[in-house]
Amino acid sequence: MEGIFTFIGVVAGHGQGMIIGHLLLVVAIVLFLANKAVANLQAVPGTTQNVFEAFLGGVMAMGKDVIGEDLARKYLPLVATIGIFVFVSNVIGIIPGFESPTSNINVTLPLALMVFFYYNYEGIREQGALNYFKHFAGPVPVLAPLMFPIEVISHISRIISLSFRLFGNIKGDDLFLWVLLMLAPFIVPLPAYLLLSFSAILQTFIFMILTYVYLAGAVALEDH
Q1: Alpha-carbon distances of 168 from 13, 123, 162, 199, rounded to whole Å
Q2: Which candidate, 109, 115, 98, places its Cα nearest to that of 174?
Q3: CA–CA separation, 219 vs 126, rounded Å?
């Protein structure tokens, strides 16, 4: 959001440098927390280890319901990494003086493209190119010329759905907070912070579960 004060923007300006600066900050935070969680593993976990174990357990439970335990475990590193990155990116924008990287389409679009190419790659690798794309034609051969392009458009639309949903919601949250701080700069709007925190968690959950859903549709075609 050009013109809005950010600490990184003071140094890098309100352009690509600010986006890259916030991305590097998010990566540094994620790496720091991950390293802290595994630096001293204990049978009775500390706070950081406990939080990460609970998070990974929740991601596994989510994946088991969508794709089964074996595949959920296989794709856990991908989905969990996406979840941590998206969550930290969402939350950092709630802190005055910082901006959410996920409020920029140049960040959310590559994330969506990564998921899109990866689940299609996994589908082709697991099913074979012929069987994978045969699924696009539907179960009725006579309708294949109609169903195939519709299915292709449906898959491409997932890129737009993933990227613009996350971008639009987080951008709206950042603007909402900006307006509140302009109206009451010296009074912390606690109810708004609770709402924005819930939104950050919700958008992270949606991105993760849709990743699992798309992977399930690609690698578990026999179940459909």
Answers
A1: 23, 29, 10, 12
A2: 98
A3: 6
pLDDT of residue 139: 81
- How far is the C-alpha of 218 from the C-alpha of 224, rounded, in Å? 10
Is residue 52 in some structural domain?
A: yes
pLDDT of residue 214: 96
Q: What is the pLDDT of residue 135?
A: 86
**Within a domain: residue 117?**
yes
Closest-CA residue to 159 (of 114, 123, 103, 121):
114
Q: Packing angle between helix 105-127 and helix 16-39, nearest 10 degrees? A: 60
Asked if residue 1 belongs to a domain, the reply is no
Q: How many domains does the chain have?
A: 1
Of 17-21, 138-142, 152-156, the poorest mean pLDDT is in: 138-142
CB 66 within 8 A of CB 213: yes
Q: pLDDT for 33-66, tens place per residue?
A: 999 998 888 877 778 899 999 999 999 999 999 9
**Residue 29 is part of which domain span?**
7-223
CB 199 within 8 A of CB 78: no
Cα–Cα distance measured from residue 94 to residue 110, given in angstroms and rounded to the nearest whole number? 23
Residue 58 DSSP SS3 = helix
Q: What percent of the chain shows pLDDT beyond 90?
A: 63
> Which of these, 83, 91, 98, lies nearest to 22 by C-alpha position?
98
